[in-house]
Amino acid sequence: MAAKKHPKICAYCGQLTTDWTADHVIPDCLWDDRQLPNRMVTVRACSTCNRYWSLYEGNFRSIVAMMSNDKDELVRHICEGVVQRHLKKDARFRQ
Fold first, then answer.
1. Helices (H) and strands (E) in the chain — how many of each?
2. Could you please report the per-residue DSSP string of 2-18?
3. CA-based nearest residue to 83, from 75, 72, 91
4. pLDDT tens for each residue of the chain, 95 residues long
5. Hey, how many other C-beta atoms are within 10 angstroms of the C-beta on 15?
6. 30, 61 in Cβ contact below 8 A?
7. What share of the chain is helix, strand, coil (3-state, %, to 5)?
8. 86 and 62 in contact (C-beta within 8 Å)?
9. Torsion over CA: 46, 7, 27, 84 (sign)
10. pLDDT number for residue 85
């Protein structure tokens, strides 16, 4: 049997919950396929808020990458890889 989590306040909605997760402040989608740095800053988020904000991480990454310097090799790699896949997969962009 899993240990019961102590109640924490969700950083997004402010509700006290025992159904919380550690959510990365800097979305891990920005790291592409590279290893996440040690000591990534996290906040406590209820599972509902974490799932909700996760839906927008791909959009956030795509916008930041497309606004960045496309002469940078890493930015080009991200735009040509995960951003292109995201735009093709998301029905809002397939018109």
1. 3, 4
2. PPPPPPEE-TTT--EES
3. 75
4. 455 678 899 999 999 999 898 888 877 777 666 676 778 888 999 999 988 888 788 778 777 777 777 677 777 777 777 777 777 776 666 65
5. 14
6. yes
7. 45, 15, 40
8. yes
9. negative
10. 77
